Amino acid sequence: MADVTRPLGLFNQIQLVAELRWRVLRNSLRKQSSRLDLFGLVLAGILAGIFVVGVCLAFFAGAYTFISEGRPNRIALLFWAIFVFWQLFPIFAAGFGASFEFRTLLRFPLSLSAFYIIGLAYGLAGFSAIASVCWLFSMTLGAAAAGLSVLPAMLAVVTLFLLLNVTLERLIGSWLEKLLSRRRTRELFVALFVLAMVSLNLINPAVNRYGVWLRVPALRIVPYLAWLPPSLAGRAIASATQFHLSGFVLGSTGLLLYGVLFIVLLWRRFANQYQGEELSETAAPLAAAARSAVTRKEAPDRLSALSPQVAAILRKEFRYLTRNSFSFFTLLMPVLLVLIFSAQFVGKHPPVSGHGVSSEMFFPGMMAYLVLILMGPAYNCFAFEGRGIQAYFMAPLRFREVFLGKNLMLLSVLAVEIGLSMAMLAWRIGLPSVPMLIATLAAIVFAVVGQLTLANWSSINFPRKLEFGQMRGQRQSGMAVLMAFGAQIMFGGVSAIVLFSGRWTGNPWLPAEAFAILAVAALGGYFASLDPLSRVAEEKKEVLIEALCH
Amino acid sequence: MPEVAIQTQKLSRRFGNLTAVDGIDLQVATGQFFGFLGPNGAGKSTTIKMLTGLLAPTSGSMQLLGLDFAAHPVEVKRQIGVVPEGMGLLDRLTGVEYLQFVGRMYGLDRATTQRRAEELLDFMQLADRPKTLIADYSHGMQKKLALAAAVIHGPRILFLDEPFEGVDALAAGALKALLGRMTERGTTIFLTSHVLEIVERLCSHVSIIHKGRLVAQGSLEELRAGISGEAGSKSTLEEVFLSIVGQDGTERPQLEELSWLM
User: Which residue of A281, A320, A387, A550 is the best one to mutate when testing the B interface, meaning the one whose CB has the most B CBs within 10 A?
Assistant: First the structure.
């Protein structure tokens, strides 16, 4: 008869989970590439520490000033700052978090209450929670330094606020997990998230243009904010400093009710998870439709000019692009960026620069920026292949054909994007002079083709697997990012010098001629590099397969 | 057609201090259904990866269909099909798109690729989900698709790493019949599997690798004959395998050590 295990205490379970997280982190550093990343992590840790301590001082000073100068109502602003940071930062930072699935703990004999408390403890271990707790502590110290009598009220409110925030953060995380459990939803969410972030840049021009009209509806919203947790916390503290018991009770009770509501909602979410909620999208397979997989009549091959292998890779790349909602949506970005920048920097009264930038300078600058963002993925071009990378090494081809297929796809996307952006620029501010237009187009050929050679080399040497439409744990290889950064500075610098040479010499056609020569040289270099790169790929195939298949 | 489909000389692969494959000399005749066996970590997958060009040997050489792999990698790859460990699928394509991709990568024309893809998907019972991405296939469906991709160009040597794992009994039966027919027509099949009953039923010849070294090679009858005693000729492949792998003093797990579980 097998032994029967004894139930483990809650503290021991939390301790085990903490040890588990530590071991996951420690073991991940065994790989050479991860050790290189450790340097970045340490640096980020030091910077984050400086940031937290600096903000602690600000919160201490803020709380002290508001209370000692008789403006306790303003302490709500500090609570708002913490609330927004605590709830939003985990969503923003999801991409950098350790990829540990909290739900995997469910296979162990945990009670629901233990699962719930471990979940909360897990939430308190995040950067936003630790930083926020530090700031709340600093606020408490600052308030106590201004008037010791406010300390009990401060401790009570801060405790409630802390409990409420950690519960809400876990609740939002849990809802997001459910929402994003389907691949398509996940990809759409990530894409919309990125677009939303980029669109924030439109706020400034919008406020400048429609600020007067927006002011009245915006002010109407303010009274409703008073019933949200940070305002309630601020009201409770303000009332306590003025010895208004009713205000303190109202604020604290409001916080308590919010806390209870979030606890109930989180308990229900965790209970669903605990009972085996299935989030996987393959749980309910589609009903099989009895029809043939290939029913289309054969269409003429539009890629017949290419070798079968290059054409096959080009088609595959196009399909991958259309099925990666994130990449697909980010294709909207260049045009959107042209709109944003042209709204901010160009025209008669640009809100940012004060005096408008001429299209003669804005056009090449904008194109350089587009090349910069569109070329980024090329430096890790096998990121989404996963185990499929083996198909390239099993097939009877040389790797130059793989590069050609992939690079052709990128060039097609670039051509479309730059065409659309030029159309947008022509509509918004007009095109530059003919010599500048031709010089810029030649510069694009030079910069893109020149970078492709380096990007192909980087993709072989510093591969990093990325998953479609996932935020958590998605990080490019540090070396690939460095490589892209260096190459873009180099090409950008050379291009800028050549571009300005026209002004310095007074010959407007000089940049166009120089860029044409550079573009031809870059093309020659690119084709000359394909065979050596094929050999490097063959030598590095184990690195590639290891990095992308696991 | 050369009589020897696969031949290796002192083929080795080291990972740092670990020698995963230690100077093996393999010989597989054309048209053989060849089983390549070994315990976990013995070096089976490493050997298959070397034979299919996914891993470079540290030393030694290999010839497939009479061609030296190192000198003629593209020509060799054109004539082999592989179901690798992990299957190597591009999971953002649909089944038919993946087969079309693989067919074209092997240089088939579009019409042939399309026709074969359709026939293979029908045979593998995957034709009823034309729009489903491979990422959404079950493990067994992915395995069947990987098999379809491995044969779409009509390879002369087929490397199969655990091909029936996760495949339902109906499809497995049809696949075994197909593989049997392929060997009758001269295709060489190099199979690894931990399910010894399957190997015993399908394979005419077997090699056993243990701790990176080839410890036995021959027909099933030859291996059985190698076991001493009268029972040798009636032994199952499992008994032969356990007998050979246990010869070097490797201790088999003792149930007594887990007395608390019984």
Answer: A387
pLDDT value at residue A410:
93
pLDDT (tens digit per residue) in A22-63: 776 666 666 655 566 667 677 878 888 999 999 999 999 999
Chain A residue closest in CA terms to B75: A396
Determine the distance in angstroms separating the CA of A427 from the nearest CA of chain B, rounded to an integer.
37
Enter the tokens of residue A57.
């001082």
List, for chain B, all residue ranges whose pLDDT scores fall below the cut of 70. Answer: 1-2, 227-233, 247-253
Helix (H, G, I), strand (E, B) or coil at B8: strand
Q: How much is the pLDDT for A283? A: 42
CB contact under 8 A, A387 and B96: no
Alpha carbon separation from A444 to A360, A377, B30 (Å, rounded): 16, 17, 55
Of B77, B89, B111, the CB nearest to A396: B77
The shortest C-alpha distance from B84 to chain A (Å) reads 8
**CB–CB of B126 and A384 under 8 A?**
no
Q: Are the beta carbons of B82 and A311 separated by less than 8 Å?
A: no
The dihedral built from the CA positions of residue A87, A92, A95 and A97, taken in this order, carries a sign that is negative
pLDDT of residue A474: 59
All residues of chain B having their beta carbon less than 8 Å from the beta carbon of residue A301 are 110
**Pairs from A48-51 (Cβ < 8 Å, separation ≥ 24):** A48/A127, A48/A131, A51/A131
Q: How far apart are CA A223 and CA A234, in angstroms?
A: 14
Dihedral over Cα of B125, B127, B128, B131: its sign: positive
Q: Can you tell me the distance from the alpha carbon of A421 to that of A374, in angstroms, rounded to the nearest whole number?
A: 12
pLDDT in tens, B66-114: 999 988 988 999 999 999 888 889 888 899 999 999 998 888 888 999 9
Residues 6+ apart with CB under 8 A from B51: B6, B8, B62, B64, B69, B159, B190
How many Cβ atoms from other residues are within 10 Å of residue A158's Cβ? Answer: 20
Taking an 8 Å cut-off on Cβ atoms, the answer to whether A316 and B90 are in contact is yes
How far are the Cα atoms of A235, A252, A547, B204 from residue A227, in angstroms, in the given order?
10, 12, 51, 79
Interface of A with B in 229-288 (CB under 8 A): 281-282, 285-286, 288
Q: Which residues, given as ranges, of chain A have pLDDT below 50?
A: 1-2, 95-99, 282-294, 352
pLDDT of residue A285: 45
Structure tokens given for A272: 């669903």
The size of the A-B interface in CB pairs under 8 A is: 132
Q: What per-residue confidence (pLDDT) applies to A110?
A: 72
CA A61, A66, A68, A73 torsion-angle sign:
negative
DSSP for residue A228: S
- Identify the closest residue of chain B to A544 by CA–CA distance: B54
What pLDDT is stored for residue B132 in this prediction?
86
- Contact criterion met (CB < 8 Å) for A312 and B111: no
The answer for residues whose C-beta is within 8 angstroms of residue B206's C-beta and 6 or more apart is B34, B35, B36, B37, B199, B216, B217, B218, B219, B220, B223, B237
Question: B175: closest CA among B215, B95, B253, B120?
Answer: B120
Report the half-sphere exposure of B236 (CA within 13 A, side-chain side): 9
Q: Which two tokens stand for residue A496?
A: 């800028």
Note the pLDDT of residue A326: 67
* Three-point CA angle B177, B180, B182, nearest 5°: 110
ipTM: 0.76
Domain boundaries, chain A: 48-169+225-274, 308-549
